[in-house]
Amino acid sequence: MSFFDEWLVAKRNSLKTGGRWREIPDIDHGADLIVSLNGRQVINLASNNYLGLAGQEAMKEAAMQGVMAYGTSSGASRLVTGTFGLYNQLESALAELKKQEACLVFGSGYAANVGLVTALAGRGSVVFSDRLNHASIVDGIVLSRARHVRYRHNDMDHLAYCLKKNRDIREKFLITDSVFSMDGDRADLGALVALCREHDVIMAVDEAHATGIVGQGRGLACELGLEREIHLHMGTLSKGLGSYGGFVCARQEVVDLLKNLARSFVFSTALPPSVIGAGLCGVRWVQDHPQEGDRLLELAARFRGFLASLGFDVGPSTTQIIPVIIRDNAKTLWARDHLLASGVLVAAIRPPTVPQGTSRLRLALRADMLPEHLAKVRTAFVRLQEAMA
């Protein structure tokens, strides 16, 4: 057996024996509320389509209008082929949503985080990052070659210690999720802003899971009135806004800098017109329906209470993302399959996505759920609790 064959078998076996092997499920229409899996119709609580926008007729029409006006591809990087009008409209709408001067759209949320960190930080910089930040933030810091200082999750005392320890470094940055994707809890943005102001730190916030939901859709920074205190506001079009892509909103000078230095923007073909058209439609929908996010958060609060009453550990969640923490990998997979047998699809999240010993089911509640859907999900969890007792 060649080295490659030995290496491949060893890699596969280490994942499978540790309960960390993943496969792509065979699901059509994966963003819809009701999806077909193995010939069965199930309620989809695994998607990040929080407001149910991805399947709306207005979104589809906007995507088709983009194709009819501009074709199916942008052709190259915007720095090479320029831009089409929809891009300018989308970036203006996003800047308005986030109460910022300007915006730059990237090919994905991952690309946006990697782009903003690598454009601003470098050798000689230090980047402070919450230990539970998204992988794209971690990868951006690694690629930037800056020193990575991870502070304990939402632990302001530990962050203050880290900041004091690095007070002699001039180029300091801090980046945090506003809503954490696996726990559904919120960053203490007020305390973070105060510490960054005290220590003269440039601050960025990833609002991927808050945009469209929190703060009448504007995000947690706007809800707390901190939009002017935070230097960079990152978000995605692919979750609450129902389309695809990432963006960074900031002062015009910062956006101009990103256009020149963010490699994930400079060296990537721009998103196609259909995606931009749908994204613009999603932003305008949120602006016209600012109450929908609050309604979803209220629904989530009631459902968290229900799960807690059954004895499930829902962690520190305060948003539409609700973890059911089971801890053991095999039991988590079993619980996922048990819910699926009751007609409910949820994600089984295991290390390395979450820390060792914290495997969980991840529920992503949706604003388009009807009472009958909620009743079915409640029944499924009652059955799961009885089976686990």
From TrEMBL:
Xref: InterPro entries: Aminotrans_II_pyridoxalP_BS, Aminotransferase_I/II_large, AON_synthase_class-II, AONS_Archaea/Proteobacteria, PyrdxlP-dep_Trfase, PyrdxlP-dep_Trfase_major, PyrdxlP-dep_Trfase_small
EC number assigned by the record: 2.3.1.47
Aminotransferase class I/classII large domain sequence ranges: 41-378
Domain of life: Bacteria
Catalytic activity: 6-carboxyhexanoyl-[ACP] + L-alanine + H(+) = (8S)-8-amino-7-oxononanoate + holo-[ACP] + CO2
Cofactor(s) required, per the database record: pyridoxal 5'-phosphate
PROSITE patterns assigned to the protein according to its UniProt record, in alphabetical order: AA_TRANSFER_CLASS_2 (PS00599)
Pathway this chain belongs to: Cofactor biosynthesis; biotin biosynthesis
Keyword Transferase: yes
Modified residues (N6-(pyridoxal phosphate)lysine): 239
Gene3D superfamilies hit by this protein: Aspartate Aminotransferase, domain 1, Type I PLP-dependent aspartate aminotransferase-like (Major domain)
Record keywords: Biotin biosynthesis, Pyridoxal phosphate, Transferase
GO biological-process terms attached to the record: biotin biosynthetic process
Single GO molecular function: pyridoxal phosphate binding
Pfam families: Aminotran_1_2
Record NCBIfam families: bioF
Subunit description: Homodimer.
UniProt similarity note: Belongs to the class-II pyridoxal-phosphate-dependent aminotransferase family. BioF subfamily.
PANTHER family attached to this UniProt entry: 8-AMINO-7-OXONONANOATE SYNTHASE, CLASS II AMINOTRANSFERASE/8-AMINO-7-OXONONANOATE SYNTHASE
Protein's job: Catalyzes the decarboxylative condensation of pimeloyl-[acyl-carrier protein] and L-alanine to produce 8-amino-7-oxononanoate (AON), [acyl-carrier protein], and carbon dioxide.
Record protein name field: 8-amino-7-ketopelargonate synthase
